[in-house]
Design goal:
mainly alpha; Neurolysin, domain 3; 2 domains
Length: 528
């Protein structure tokens, strides 16, 4: 019988260098858009996947005895999932990698046109944030969707290929396979998501009625005439900030300096991470923010953004460095395959939690220079924005998760209609009359982060649970301490970051907060 420790050691030797090189190549490709870098990234990703594709090695791993040692058992579980995910031919692996990177490069290099001028996503969102002209807003909104028709064919080919390989491995479709290999139960997952949505729907309906009344007055149209371009975000995935002064606060602020001060004060310094970051717009660079580690436990953590002076980009910067400090502080003495975050949702929880501080009154006073005399009004606005974000985002996640589940279950159906049916049901937006375009394909996550979106809402649930624990056990109920006490970072490092992937995600949450994931804390935070 194969010795498990020897198998793990050998697999690390096979994987470690290729994984690091693949991550470096992906970074180069996404921040430059260079075709040579894109080809190299696709090839290295395929090489990495091939490290787990051997049927013989998978059977060798399956033949090992379940160890009593918890660390070895956890590594065995992680490796079994990695091998299960990659059981396909080399040809299929290379095709998947090439097609995935092709779609990603289309998104990275695409620039919409507004009045025949190439513009960035930031430019389009600026129109939706500031313009009071319905025609101008509609033009910007429609321009933001053009990428959908550009990428639709490639994306559907990718869906078909993913499904083909998942079904060959014995799964109903690719989406089901991915959920199972994320240590999630599909039925339970959708039950939790739908229960949270249902609990918050009355509050969302009330919130949106107020928002619609405000927008109706602002744009001089009836509520019945409101359409998706009247909302600030092209997908209505976030609450508007136009009715608050939050954007004014950050318009001329040094976002990097603010983020540095905040993380330093809570005991999680990021200046060394800022030096490696790529934070501003550039031709060919991906317009979407992300964080990645190059190698495990190397300290080489990269953050990419396209900063402008808005509350949204301040939030995004804090969010991405939430991912970064997590990656940076995983215990580097852990075994290689445990030297990363516990689960996608746990790193999203930290990122979402950090991003929320932009609407925290104590944080705004301490780091954004809000005068004490304005604190009460800013606090009211901040709480309204935060609550609005969670209400809007919860319904948006229903659209994304249900659409993607159906996309893989039946990709030949009328996807344009499915998309707008879900938007109308959950977000209560009216579809534009006569429009029959693949607006769904404009959402980059469907192409580049498949079966991922549920982790954002699970992360929000975990963020609320962690915040509750931090407030009661570390900050003693003081919001000022919550945003400035180094004990906050110390607690996160000890209970969340350093354990890496030693524990399953729900075990990690239970160990840190005293109970498994409990959606009630998110619901209470919004309703209260």
């Amino acid at each position: 019988m194969t010795d498990l420790s020897e198998f793990i050691k050998r697999q690390q030797e096979i994987v470690e260098t290729i994984e690091r090189d693949s991550q470096q190549a992906y970074w180069d490709a996404t921040v430059t858009g260079d075709s040579g870098a894109l080809d190299r990234a696709a090839g290295l990703q395929a090489s990495l996947d091939l490290c787990y594709s051997s049927v013989e090695r998978r059977h060798e791993l399956l033949a090992t005895a379940e160890p009593l040692d918890e660390s070895l058992a956890r590594q065995r579980k992680i490796l079994l999932d990695s091998f299960a995910r990659a059981q396909m031919s080399p040809e299929a692996i290379y095709e998947l990698s090439k097609r995935s990177m092709t779609v990603e490069s289309i998104f990275a290099n695409f620039r919409a046109k507004l009045k025949d001028v190439a513009v960035t996503d930031n430019d389009l969102k600026a129109v939706l944030r500031r313009s009071s002209d319905s025609s101008e807003r509609r033009e910007a909104w429609e321009a933001s969707k053009v990428i959908g028709s550009t990428v639709e064919g490639e994306l559907l080919d990718l869906v078909a290929l993913r499904n083909r390989e998942a079904q060959a491995a014995g799964y109903p479709d690719y989406y089901v396979m991915q959920i199972r290999l994320q240590e999630l139960d599909e039925i339970e997952l959708f039950r939790v998501l739908e229960n949270v949505s249902r609990s918050l729907t009355p509050s969302f309906v009330e919130y949106k009625a107020g928002l619609d009344a405000t927008l109706s007055a602002r744009f001089g149209v009836t509520i019945d005439e409101l359409r998706p371009w009247h909302y600030e975000d092209p997908f209505f995935q976030d609450a508007p900030s136009a009715d608050s002064s939050l954007d004014d606060i950050f318009e001329r602020a040094d976002l990097e300096r603010i983020a540095s001060r905040f993380y330093q004060e809570i005991g999680l310094p990021i200046d060394h991470l800022l030096k490696r970051a790529d934070l501003y717009e550039r031709s060919g660079k991906s317009q979407h923010a992300f964080c990645m580690a190059v190698g495990r436990g190397t300290g080489d953590i990269r953050v990419a953004c396209n900063l402008r002076g808005t509350a949204r980009w301040m939030e995004t910067l804090l969010h991405e460095f939430g991912h970064a400090v997590y990656d940076d502080l995983v215990d580097r003495d852990l075994p290689f395959f445990l030297r990363t975050y516990s689960h996608i949702l746990t790193t999203e929880a930290i990122a979402e939690m950090m991003g929320r501080f932009v609407s925290n009154a104590a944080w705004l006073r301490a780091y954004a220079g809000v005068p004490a005399g304005q604190a009460a009004e800013i606090e009211r606005q901040a709480r309204a924005v935060s609550r609005g974000h969670l209400l809007v985002f919860t319904q948006w996640v229903q659209v994304m998760t249900q659409f993607e589940r159906e996309l893989y279950a039946n990709p030949s159906q009328d996807l344009n209609k499915l998309w707008w049916d879900l938007v109308e049901t959950h977000q209560r937006l009216k579809r534009p009359e006569g429009r029959n375009e693949p607006d769904w394909a404009a959402k980059i996550h469907l192409a580049t982060a498949p079966a991922y979106y549920h982790n954002y809402l699970l992360g929000e649930m975990m963020a609320s649970q962690i915040l509750r624990t931090l407030r009661s056990t570390v900050a003693g109920g003081s919001e000022d301490r919550l945003v400035s006490d180094p004990a906050v970072g110390g607690w996160l490092a000890q209970h969340i970051f350093r354990p890496g992937s030693r524990y399953s995600w729900n075990d990690l949450i239970a160990r840190a907060t005293g109970e498994p994931l409990n959606p009630a804390y998110l619901v209470a935070e919004v309703i209260d």
